[in-house]
């Protein structure tokens, strides 16, 4: 019989990666914690895969300007994150449900994103049923599903906010990262003509995702080119894209817009997560996975993401 309210399961323990303090990847440590019990309106999820995002690395390293570091410490915790287990993205199955849960049942295969509660670097987590959590399309593996929410939801939000329309000419700067690979495919899905900007080693990848033209920023000064764009989307963030944003106006058509992934707090919707899953199921978009690490190798995964050269997503398989 289904255990509607969960249980303490005999005091079972789980494996989780704990952030002991702010700093380099080595501050992450594998520990055993109590298996959580879902509360009212919450589900417990047995995680099968998660992802190391650039946001995870920012939270862990607090590699920000002084003012932003102070604000981040006030919001997240002064010496270490209050939510010690990081990880915003997951794919897995519902393992137990709390009182008054109607959206999911035990055994449902789900995927999702939570940028506030974290907790996905673990074997189990409890998340609210009304959060960014949706049924995983049956044709996707857990690893593929974990590679969708972060880049997909952010790209979808900013492309819509910029008013993307069929026939627009869109330039995506940083087209080979998690947000960029999603943005290329989503812009193409919306009927836009896409120019992607990336490094030499990623030209074929970006072209394969549907970009009509791909520019190697190490060999071509696209900022001075004759092309004019209806939308320029900075998919890497302002710390790396300063020159692009400074010269944005000269690249735009008369009614064109420039937008950065750092512009404001995005509003992310569960319906969009469902849409992304359906598009992936139908082959309209494909998850891009650079590397897949086991949970025990989370430190090495963070080192790799810190290097700033990942293609798409770095996924973690949870034992």
Write the element-wise H/E pattern from the N-terminal end onward.
EEEHHEEEEHHEHEHEEHHEHEHE
Radius of gyration: 20 Å
User: Which sheet architecture does the biggest sheet show?
Assistant: 7 strands, mixed
End-to-end C-alpha gap: 26 Å
Helix content: 25-40%
The CATH architecture classification of the largest domain is: Alpha-Beta Complex
CATH topology of the largest domain: Quinone Oxidoreductase, Chain A, domain 1
Count of all domains: 2
What's the β-strand tally?
A: 14
Strand content is 25-35%
Mean of residue pLDDT values: 94
- The geometry reads as globular
Low-confidence stretches: 1-9
Which structural class best describes the helix and strand composition?
alpha/beta
The number of helical elements comes to 10
CATH class of the largest domain: Alpha Beta
Q: Mind telling me the CATH superfamily name of the largest domain? A: Medium-chain alcohol dehydrogenases, catalytic domain
Your description of this structure?
With 319 residues, the chain is an alpha/beta fold. It folds into 2 domains: 170 residues, Quinone Oxidoreductase, Chain A, domain 1, CATH 3.90.180; 110 residues, 3-Layer(aba) Sandwich (Rossmann fold), CATH 3.40.50. It contains 10 helices and 14 strands. The strands form 3 sheets. Strands 3, 4, 5, 6, 7, 13 and 14 form a 7-stranded mixed β-sheet that branches. It has a 5-stranded parallel β-sheet with strand order 10-9-8-11-12. Strand 1 and strand 2 form a beta hairpin. Helix 4 crosses helix 5. The radius of gyration is 20 Å and the shape is globular. The N terminus is likely disordered.
């Amino acid at each position: 019989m289904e255990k509607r309210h969960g249980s303490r399961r005999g005091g079972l323990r789980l494996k989780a990666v704990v952030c002991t303090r702010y700093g380099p990847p080595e501050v992450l440590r594998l520990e055993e914690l109590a298996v959580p019990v879902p509360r009212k309106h919450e589900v417990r999820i047995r995680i099968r895969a998660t992802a190391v995002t650039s946001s995870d690395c920012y939270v862990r390293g607090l590699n920000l300007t002084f003012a932003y570091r102070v604000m981040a410490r006030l919001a997240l915790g002064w010496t270490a994150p209050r939510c010690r287990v990081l990880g915003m993205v997951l794919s897995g199955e519902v393992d137990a449900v709390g009182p008054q849960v109607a959206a999911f049942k035990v055994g449902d295969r789900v995927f999702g994103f939570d940028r506030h509660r974290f907790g996905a670097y673990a074997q189990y987590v409890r998340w609210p049923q009304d959060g960014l959590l949706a049924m995983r399309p049956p044709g996707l593996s857990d690893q593929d599903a974990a590679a969708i929410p972060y880049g997909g939801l952010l790209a979808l939000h900013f492309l819509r906010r910029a008013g993307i329309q069929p026939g627009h000419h869109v330039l995506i700067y940083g087209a080979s990262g998690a947000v960029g690979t999603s943005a290329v495919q989503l812009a193409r899905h919306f009927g836009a003509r896409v120019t992607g900007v990336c490094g030499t080693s990623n030209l074929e990848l970006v072209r394969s995702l549907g970009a009509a033209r791909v520019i190697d920023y190490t060999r071509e000064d696209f900022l001075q080119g004759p092309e004019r764009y209806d939308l320029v989307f900075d998919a890497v963030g302002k710390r790396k894209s300063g020159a692009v944003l400074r010269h944005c106006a000269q690249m735009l058509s008369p009614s064109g817009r420039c937008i950065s992934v750092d512009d404001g707090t995005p509003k992310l919707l569960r319906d969009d997560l469902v849409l992304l899953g359906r598009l992936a199921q139908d082959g309209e978009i494909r998850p891009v996975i650079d590397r897949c690490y086991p949970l025990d190798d989370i430190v090495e995964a963070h080192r790799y993401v810190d290097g700033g050269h990942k293609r798409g997503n770095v996924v973690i398989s949870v034992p």
